[in-house]
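note to self: dont lose this again. the chain is below, predicted strucutre after it. 228 aa total, dont forget to put it in the shared folder this time
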Amino acid sequence: MNSAEILIIDDEMQIRRLLEITLESNEFKVVEAATAKDGLIAAANHPPDMILLDIGLPDENGQIVLQKLREWYNKPIIILSVLSDEENIVKALDNGANDYLVKPFRTGELLARIRSAMRSSTTEEKYPVIDCNGFQIDLSARTVKKNNELIKLTATEYSLLALLVKNEGKVLTHQYLLREVWGPGYINQSQYLRVFIAQLRKKIESDPNVPEHILTESGIGYRFIVKD
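---
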């Protein structure tokens, strides 16, 4: 059995059963909680490798639960919710969620998101050199190469790319990227982000107009994907 343990915090018994069957058939260990209170206790007593969290819990809003978890829990959290509006998605990502899936979801996509989130949580520590189908990022040496040739990046371009790579697979909101790269005074300057994303795509993508690595999540932010 996979050594990775996943905590499911969801009040819908049918969803928990579906997730349990899916995860255990893929050799994950599963722990379940039907309320926010039980979920927080379970996470604190035996911190899992990942948490799947529902927003609509009966005793406390999932966004509040997410904030409480992020006070101490630094492993991946994926939100599973029927709420598909942009406001809730952006709020969850800004509160520290690694990803957001709208119910009903495809089990194959869920498993892919789980693998991506788990991989991204150890990217810098275990995989300081990332090979991405023609270009290479060495986080420890702070270098980027394409077809074995060094790509010249400005300090800001590198900071933006490194932040995306370190969070591989995770959607990073516009506000988060602007705050982390430019500072809190720039969170409304979305034009900065558009310009620098376009510059990065020109330098690393095979076709900047059809990007394979720096993907746009419309109205929300950007996601970096590694493709072999």
